[in-house]
Write a structure and sequence with these properties.
Length: 171
Amino acid sequence: MIAQAPEQLQNEVIEIRRVGRVTKGGKRMRFRVVVVVGNGAGRVGVGMGKSIEIPQAVQQAIRNALKNMIEVPIVNGTIPHEVVGEYGAAKVLLRPAYPGTGIIAGRTVGAVCRMAGIKDILTKAMRSTNPLNLARATLVALSQLESPEMVAKRRGKPLKEILEVEDDDQS
């Protein structure tokens, strides 16, 4: 994991849910908190925390999110190509958008994109709308992204050739 100063990271609470288990003495209630953490410049993570008190659950979720951080390639404020991510029953489609479009997304997917530093993106959440699974599906999709440099290196070709081929496909 890359060491990052905590003050550069921002976090956003996606969901606070009261959950419980039934014991002999009655119901034991706790809070489950889902948090997204990012530096706004290509690093983002999602975490979950459970505790009797909400602030403790938030701190636990932030620690968990820091462990699950990924690197996101961002090209001109958007993602390099279209991608689909699945996690459990949740499925999310992410599409690059032209500058000025903004983040066209639901609350959960939008929060993950904002924390990653993406400025323009089109998204569609399909199937399950569970916030935790949607956030994790978005992370799966973002982790599948490859920048043009990564594609060129993988194919063993010069970057110029890769960019020319991609330009031909779009016309």
